[in-house]
Amino acid sequence: MKKLANSTSFMSISKIGVPCICILLLLSYVSIVYSQICDEVYVVAWSPDGAFIAVSGSEASCDTRDVSSLGIRIFDAETGVVVKYLQGANRRANGLDWSSDGSKLVSFNSAAGIVYIWDVASEQLLITEPLNSQGITLARWQPDTDLIAFGTPSNSIIFFDTTNQSEVTSQIAGTTLDWSPDGTQMVTGSIYDYLLIIWDVSTQQQITSFNQNSASSYRVEWSPDGSKILSSLTDNQALIWDFASEQLLRTIHVDDLVNAHWSPDSNKIATVSLDGTIQVWDANSGYLLDTILGSAPTYDVAWNPDGSQLAYYLPDNDTIIVANPEVVSPTPTPDPTHTPPPTPSFGKIAYSSNVTVSIGGMIYQHPWF
Questions:
Q1: Regarding predicted confidence, which is higher, 272 or 346?
Q2: Residue 172: is its pLDDT beyond 70?
Q3: pLDDT-derived band of residue 68, with 50, 70 and 90 as boundaries?
Q4: How far, in Å, CA of 1 to CA of 149, rounded?
Q5: Were 74 and a residue from 43, 84, 230, 304 both cysteine, which residue would form a disulfide, CB within 3.0 to 4.6 Å?
Q6: Is residue 221 within 8 Å of 241, Cβ to Cβ?
Q7: How confident is the model at residue 88 (pLDDT cuts 50, 70, 90)?
Q8: Residue 251 has what pLDDT?
Q9: Could you write out the three-class secondary structure of the chain?
Q10: Distance from first CA to last CA of the chain, Å, rounded?
């Protein structure tokens, strides 16, 4: 059983203004709670400077604004206040990505294959592009350029030039992708085979491939330092590959794996499971460092740029949580393909509805809609 820490009783004000006594079970590492989500969240993404958190999958508004408009909500990462409503999309956003300078956001509707690109400062929808009628799986902005790469269910990577607002010819195959940190290479995976393929972006020629043998990839991610590649497999494994030697370094087994992400220092990995459980792993030893227990489906988790915090969606309470993971010192394991049993760590967040929470001297309200 996971341990629950810091059980606290406090007075709160309900939505109708009636005081009520509520119980909060709150981990010491939870620093902020963002409310007013109003709909299911698929992706949570920090801005490159760490000042904001963008949320896709939600309605753009749940107050007196145009609630029929779908888009992106952007929160101030310190206060939890919604500071931007990126509206104008006619379909729900299933994914998003920031441009390198944080000035623009791209989102898409996965089923319809429609792409939306916003200017963040002005909140203006710049581009609406029906890119692929067969759908889109993800979007990744090339570092420091105006080019976006999209994965598709048809096993082809689509490039879109946002300056010219036009599609760029591509011969690169895959349903999922990520850029190398310098943007000169790309790693792709596919749900249709067991390969990870490395491509030269300028020539669109295959450089090498890794055979994953047992399962296909639905997510791939290059480590920020460029030395390793992370692959999330359909058989609930996360594989860590050494890019230079093309050797498998670690296999991490995660029940009902949905997604996995590198920490900014390339030393840790955060995984999210279908039941909402989030785990932090040491990428070098494969040891479990921390666990946040879930109670409902969660699709994504995101590191802030300095790696000190994780943001994720808590669907059963319709909130975004920002947590400071408490990690233990890992013990190296000699077997690179073996993950030791999880070590005990703190976990679950549970609280009643309609509460006002005071954390670190700041007040955050939870209005449930």
A1: 272
A2: yes
A3: very low
A4: 43
A5: 84
A6: no
A7: confident
A8: 95
A9: CCCCCCEEEEEEECCCCCEEEEEEECCCCEEEEECCCCCCCCEEEECCCCCEEEEECCECCCCCCCCCCEEEEEEECCCCCEEEEEEEECCCCCEEEECCCCCEEEEEECCCCEEEEEECCCCEEEEEEECCCCCCCEEEECCCCCEEEEECCCCECEEEECCCCEEECCCCECCEEEECCCCCEEEEECCCCCEEEEEECCCCEEEEEEECCCCCEEEEEECCCCCEEEEEECCCEEEEEECCCCCEEEEEECCCEEEEEECCCCCEEEEEECCCCEEEEECCCCCEEEEECCCCCCCCEEECCCCCCEEEEECCCCEEEEECCCCCCCCCCCCCCCCCCCCCCCCCCEECCCCEEEECCEEEECCCC
A10: 32
Q: What does the pLDDT average to over 99-124?
A: 95
Question: Residue 282 and residue 268: Cα distance in Å, rounded?
Answer: 5
Separation of alpha carbons 76 and 81, rounded Å = 5
Is pLDDT of 356 > 60?
Answer: no
Distance CA 125, CA 13 (A): 37
